[in-house]
Design a protein that fits this description.
Strand order of the largest sheet: 1-2
Low-confidence stretches: 271-278, 391-396
Order of helices and strands: HHHHHHEEEEHHHHHHHH
Number of helices: 14
Structural class: mainly alpha
Helix content: 55-70%
Length: 396
């Protein structure tokens, strides 16, 4: 007979694998795959709650959050009601309940996330090196993908996609996109895995950290390179080797001097490249447009999930301002609570300190990557909110 612990672990892996596939990958666009990716995570989290049986506890805040999710539903465009219900009235409330009731094991599902991302890393590095870089093998198929427009992606056994090129230091490179529609999405998934591995896991796996770091570099993402510089600084700052305090001081001083120059150099190279200049100007214009739309519809936004409208022409460069435009201050407050305000409050109380760092890093990545209506983002929003409505407080 299968033990409950095994069933729980299997269900958590199912949730994580499908959340990753839903995080803007080609798989989420095709028929039966899309239905599996959209609905099985909800069923799996519900089953995880059933495993708790009578131990499931609900508080007033759970009911209040669910009732509050009904208000934006009144402002949803015709045709996307089922998507809204799936995201905000099923997945998000169930995820909050999950983290609240599995509070002592809250990080276990995140460890599974890093395990799955690690496998994706190894596969993508293999095909990136022998396929995209050395051209020792050729793509096995070409896949039509709609990402802003209809595109054709070369793929290797549907395990790795060549989705983007980039200019770096004056040269054009194929970016490692893994199984994602573009490199920024892969970079965000990698950076979150790296943060979880570095800050939450008690026993650091150095080889995993190295693989994640190398893979981030191959995405040629400015965000990822800055993220790596920051984490290197944090790792050095938290070094516990007291025998080398002077060396640590010198290295930190050097890092403080070097990192700003490295970041500036990366940004200058990004802007000076032919694609980078257009990218920066387009991002700036998009943010301005989102702010204007948000100010015109301050409290409830223009309409949630409006990107599914064929005439939608904003919110393609970031999540923060796109969310403000679509959902106004009402919905934006939900995301800011889970990813920013609650973590900052917990840090001042010295509760959930490491978890709060991971949430703040997610907020940084979320702010500049289009990911606001993805399951993974809602999972982290739920992770943050659950810390405010726990039944037994604990922290590190």
């Amino acid at each position: 007979m299968i033990k409950m612990g095994k069933i729980q672990s299997i269900l958590e892996y199912i949730v994580i694998i499908l959340l990753i596939l839903e995080f803007n990958t080609p798989f989420s666009q095709y028929g039966i795959f899309a239905k599996i990716i959209y609905y099985i995570p909800i069923i799996s989290i519900f089953l995880l709650l059933l495993l708790k049986g009578k131990k499931i506890q609900m508080k007033f805040w759970h009911l209040l959050l669910f009732l509050g999710s009904i208000i934006p539903f009144l402002n949803v465009q015709y045709g996307v009601e089922s998507t809204y219900i799936r995201l905000f009235m099923l997945f998000l409330p169930l995820s909050i309940l999950y983290f609240s009731n599995y509070e002592e094991e809250r990080n276990v599902i995140l460890y599974k996330y890093t395990n799955v991302i690690l496998i994706i890393c190894c596969v993508s590095l293999f095909f990136y090196i022998i396929g995209s870089t050395l051209n020792l093998i050729s793509p096995t198929a070409y896949v039509p993908v709609f990402w802003g427009e209809q595109r054709i992606y070369p793929t290797y056994f549907y395990l790795y996609f060549e989705a983007q090129n980039s200019f770096f230091l004056g040269n054009e490179y194929i970016r490692n996109c893994g199984i994602f529609n573009e490199a920024p999405m892969y970079n965000m998934a990698l950076c979150i895995a790296l943060a979880i591995e570095l800050f939450l896991r008690e026993k650091k796996r150095k080889i995993v950290l190295c693989i994640l770091g190398v893979t981030i570099i191959t995405t040629f993402s400015t965000t990822g390179q800055i993220f790596l510089c920051f984490l290197i600084f944090c790792a050095m700052w938290n070094a516990k080797n007291k025998k080398h305090k002077f060396l640590k001081f010198m290295l930190l001083t050097l890092m403080l001097l070097v990192i700003p120059f490295v970041i500036n150099w990366i940004l200058q190279d990004k802007v000076s490249s032919s694609s980078g200049e257009g990218s920066v100007s387009a991002r700036s214009y998009d943010i301005q447009k989102c702010i204007q739309i948000g100010l015109d519809n301050l409290f409830f936004g223009k309409s949630l999930l409006s990107e599914q409208n064929p005439n939608h022409n904003y919110g393609f460069s970031n999540s923060l301002f796109a969310l403000f435009a679509d959902g106004g201050l009402y919905v934006l407050a939900l995301y800011l609570s889970g990813l920013l305000f609650i973590p900052l409050y917990n840090m001042t109380r010295k509760k959930f300190f490491k978890e709060s760092i991971v949430l703040l890093l997610y907020f940084y990545l979320f702010s500049i990557t289009v990911s606001h209506f993805r399951y993974l983002t809602l999972l982290f929003v739920a992770y943050g909110i659950s810390m405010c409505i726990n039944y037994r407080q604990y922290g590190k």
